[in-house]
Amino acid sequence: MGAKITNPYRNDKDHLRDLLRLVETKQELYTIKTRMGDWMGEAFDRPARSDDEDERARQARIRRLQSEVRSLERRVAQKAALARAQGARLSIERMAETYGLCELELHILLVLLLEDISVSGARTYSRGKDILGLLLDDRMSVLDARRHLYASGPLLSQSLIVCASPEESSVLDAYFKISERAVRELTGGFANAQQFGERFGLLTEEPHQIGAPALRTPTISLDDVVLPPACREEVGHLIALSRHSDLLLHSWGFAQSYQREGMTTALFSGPPGTGKTITAQAVAHALGRPILTVSYPEMVSKWVGETEKNITRVFAQAAAHDAVLLFDEADAMFHTRVSVASATDQSFNREVNVLLQEVERFPGVLVLTTNRADDLDPAFERRISVRVGFPLPDAAAREEIWRRHVPASAPLADDVDFAALARAFPFAGGHIKNAVLRAAANAAVRGPGHGARITMKDFRLAAQREMATCSTAVSTRRMGLGSAQMAS
Asked: Cβ-count burial of 28 within 10 angstroms (0-12 exposed, 13-18 middle, 19+ buried)?
């Protein structure tokens, strides 16, 4: 049972510190339980011994956290009771009386306060189902408790929390944040949770989280992208799925068999420079939505558990803004899980498990781009709705790409022949773009001012330079033929 507690809380700061430690421990316990519950049924091809050892380690960690929760709950209850016995009134108890809050509603505020202290606005546990899930023991309790997040409840009706999701979202899918009023009430006058956490040493994490990736308004349309017909057809299918997802899932009842919150996860695969990223931007433009682009270096952290938190924050940010979420070079993060032989292996597998969970419940459009589709974890297969293969462009497509990358205002010499360039240099659109810019820069250096012209020789030399570093290698002999053809 532990040593008997004889000292009451002497101030509100110590009381709040223990309450936040309790919430943080429940967060960790909830995260582990959620991963296990969602992914224990996955058919992994792993050695049984590694799985058994990993499972035992998780169970041991759960038991330890459960013991910590019970210990903290006893500590808080006993020290608060001793304070009341001495005539003290703790600020949180006064707040509950003033606003008519029950114990669960107070703990909802503490969860959201901890979010502000920990991640400075990037929400990790601020979705309704996660807030209630980490505070309650089972799903039926969560369903019953959702009324505490209704607009008519004391938290929202008295502006203690703010709903950051569209009105049509269910409270379990909606995202919430704590209001400045509630922060002041809980912290004794601080209007900013970060300042409060720094002042009293309540920050629960080092300031090493990623900054929120920037939301961008796409300017590229599908008309700007050169795609083969089959590829364009699949991209159109992705857009149609997104536009009509509510009709398909709810009005027509496909949600019952589909059993997912979203149905628009796309895999764009193909060699580098074939237009995967620019097409994702065009999809966002067609849907009239912002785009949130994420890459592996932005997500990974050397701190244990931080990468998983960064992943969750990004999905939450995209959902809150109804943005198209783009994971560029997704194979770096969505890689196949490995047999656990070290702590690093465990970390890799945890990251993929979190990604699987977030993909499963993400309600928006998710696009994964890769040139190594075979490296993706097999468990993603059933979660991908649309697969678009981006081949290297043929000669006709390459000619069109050369033309589109040259602005109408660019000064071209009369000898420029885009068809000849397309035939001579069989590389992807990304390399064509680089070659065009290099040719223009060479022309500008040679003849600054309005008299400069971009010549066929500029394009040919730039393309040869680009071909030398092109990952789509061609033989030296073929490059020589191309140069001879161009010279003639």
From this structure: middle
| Phi, psi for 453 (deg, rounded to 5) | -135, 140
Q: How far apart are CA 266 and CA 385, in angstroms?
A: 6
Separation CA 245–CA 214 (nearest Å) = 26
Beta pairing partners, 269: 370, 389
- Whether the Cβ atoms of residue 57 and residue 148 lie closer than 8 Å to each other: no
Q: What residues form DSSP beta bridges with 292? A: 215, 325
Is 174 found in the same domain as 243? no
Q: Based on the structure, what is the number of domains in the chain?
A: 3
Q: Residues 182, 229: one domain?
A: no
CB hemisphere CA count around 314 (13 angstroms): 29
Residues 184 and 279 in one domain: no
Q: Assess whether 408 and 435 both reside in one domain.
A: yes
Round to whole Å and give the CA distance between 156 and 152: 7
Beta-carbon contacts of 376 under 8 Å, excluding residues fewer than 6 positions away, are 267, 330, 331, 334, 335, 336, 368, 370
Mean pLDDT of 232-250: 86
State whether 410 and 266 are in the same domain: no
Q: Is the pLDDT of residue 485 over 50?
A: no
pLDDT of residue 295 exceeding 60 = yes
Position 420 in a domain: yes
The CATH code of the domain that includes 467 is 1.10.8.60
Burial per residue of 111-135, b for 16 or more beta-carbon CB atoms within 10 angstroms, e otherwise:
bbbbbbbbbbebbbbbbbbbbbbbb
Secondary structure string (H, E, C) spanning 158-200: CCCEEECCCCCCCCCCCEEEECHHHHHHHHCCCCCHHHHHHHC
Give the domain extent around 474.
Answer: 395-487
**Residue 182 neighbours by CB under 8 Å, 6+ apart:** 109, 112, 113, 160, 161
**pLDDT mean over 340-348:** 47
